[in-house]
Design brief:
With about 60 residues, the chain is mostly helical. The protein contains three helices and no strands. It is elongated, with a radius of gyration of 20 Å.
Length: about 60
């Protein structure tokens, strides 16, 4: 925070060398190395479990 304030940036912004600023790069590397895309897993979860929730909501209505 002090480094951001000294540089005239918003103190709540992540510092330029923080992991938060490297997140897009890390996700890209993970996709390339492991052929893993979290969006695919999220879609699969909704298809499996989201559907069950819909059935439960209908049964309780």
């Amino acid at each position: 925070m002090r480094a951001n304030a000294a540089a005239g940036r918003n103190v709540m912004d992540p510092s330029p060398d923080s992991e938060e600023n490297n997140r897009p790069r890390i996700l890209t590397e993970t996709r390339m190395i492991f052929s893993y895309d979290p969006a695919d897993d999220a879609d699969e979860w909704w298809m499996s479990w989201g559907r069950l929730r819909g059935f439960a909501d209908q049964a309780n209505a």
